Amino acid sequence: MQKTIIYFVFFLSGVAGLGYEVLWTRMLSVSLGHEIVSVLAVVSAFFSGISLGAWLLDKPVSRSADPANWYAALEIIMGLWALMLVFTLPALNPIASKFIGLTPSVFRHWGVSFLYPFILLLPATVAMGGTLPAIDRILEKSGHKGNQVAGLYSANTFGAVLGTLVVTFFLIPAMGMNKSAVGLMLINFICAAGILLISRKKASSTEFYDASGNIDPARPRVYLILLATGFLGIGFEVMIVRVLSQVLENTIFSFADMLMVFLFGTAMGAAIYQKIKKSFWLQFLPWRMLNLHFMCCRHFSEKRLKGPLPPSCPSPFYFFCCPPCQWGPPSAIWHSP
């Protein structure tokens, strides 16, 4: 029961996290000049801050005797920062617009567009990055042995799908951006309160635990594969957004549609990996799904071009390389002694 509640809390955290991404994309589009620019800028700021937060907070959170306090504090920071942005963004957006100017160079426009959201959202995104090691440590202390990261990632990503759907198509149209931000902030506070109640209700072990020992830092292949996975995965997402926006229109709604599909597939992959035997996963699924993925991409390309795909076309190479890199991290981490 306790494990289910922890998973549900992290599911709600995903609802708030991606809800913020959609919300801040809409709010920043006023100053950045175009929704697609704000989409790319917020995506970049989100993942930069999350990766920085995970890197900075992993060891102190994992070594903490009371990770529930860490998790609650991170959720509260996210909520309070989101509330602060409700009041400060209207004043800051005109300043950013002045920095961009009426006829900016490409470097100036994209430089300001990416740097402004990165700095503005940094406290919240860094806090988001620290929630995964915190929640994983909470599960470890509650007596649930074994690697739970894939299951937690799946729950959080399914929550992200729901958050994208609800905020884009229901909350913002019905309540406006400011009230939507307050609603998401309340979800953060609920997550913080839920984790604190669970941790106080059941006494847990305070034994030292260093999560960094699960992966040997001397094995750079793990980190290189993870780096390639992130690069190709998000690159794949951005490319799809740019290509399909020509068909579905260049708005936040088309971005939300594509983001939900991307996140749902990612969540399903993590959930399957958590449940099935590793031998089946490593020996059967990657290659079968790789073949299916390549056939679907080739069929789509031929239909789009109304003819055979030219051998020199680079698209099949990209689509062919992307899936095995996405399957690579579980294999590499699983085989690391």
β-strand number: 0
Give the biggest beta sheet.
Answer: none
What percentage of the residues does DSSP assign to strands (E)?
Answer: under 5%
- Individual helix count: 11
Order of helices and strands: HHHHHHHHHHH
Shape: globular
**What class do helices, strands and sheet pairing give?**
mainly alpha
Overall mean confidence score, pLDDT: 77
Give an overview in words.
It is built from eleven helices and no strands. The chain is globular, with a radius of gyration of 21 Å. The model is unreliable at 203-209 and 308-337 (pLDDT under 50). Helix 3 runs antiparallel to helix 4 (106-141) and helix 10 packs antiparallel against helix 11 (315-335). The protein starts with a helix and ends with a helix. With 337 residues, it is mostly helical. The protein has helices at residues 2-32, 35-62, 67-100, 106-141, 149-175, 177-201, 220-248, 252-275, 278-283, 285-305, 315-335.
What are the key terms here?
11 helices; globular
Could you write a compact summary of the structure shown?
The chain has 337 residues and is mainly α. It has helices at 2-32, 35-62, 67-100, 106-141, 149-175, 177-201, 220-248, 252-275, 278-283, 285-305, 315-335.
